[in-house]
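Q: What residues go here?
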């Protein structure tokens, strides 16, 4: 992918990322550059109406091409983004991050987070719900 290549977003897909989950769970793993790129893509997502050059991202975020490619690699590896290529045009599909609880229940993601911030910090993040046998909530039917 070169700075003069174009990209667009997939149409009819607006996401509102969970900032708490992104900041506490994803950011330690993906780093600040990929974190900034994801936020930039979320706010500039026009749902497929326009085409843009990658040079706009490079200039706005003050990235080099290698840093941009690494950030894209991290976002796709963490399933926050999918990238499709057609000739020299790219289509970006943003994915919503998992909730904090879903993230911590995923063994691979949890292990990556433990590696970055430590077991005790991850344990403090875990939500302990009351015993499910005592749940008296009414289902919608």
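A:
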């Amino acid at each position: 992918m070169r700075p003069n290549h174009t990209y667009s977003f997939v149409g009819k897909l607006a996401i509102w990322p969970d900032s708490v989950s992104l900041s506490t769970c994803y950011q330690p793993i993906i780093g600040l550059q990929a974190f900034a790129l994801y936020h930039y893509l979320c706010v500039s997502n026009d749902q497929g109406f326009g085409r843009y050059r990658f040079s706009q991202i490079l200039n706005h975020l003050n990235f080099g091409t290698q840093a941009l490619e690494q950030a894209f690699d991290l976002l796709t590896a963490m399933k926050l983004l999918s990238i499709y290529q057609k000739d020299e045009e790219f289509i970006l599909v943003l994915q919503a991050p998992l909730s904090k609880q879903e993230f911590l229940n995923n063994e691979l993601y949890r292990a990556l987070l433990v590696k970055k911030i430590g077991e005790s910090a991850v344990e403090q993040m875990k939500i302990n719900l009351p015993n499910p046998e005592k749940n008296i909530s009414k289902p919608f039917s």
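A: Context that may help when evaluating the design: The radius of gyration is 18 Å. The mean pLDDT is 90.
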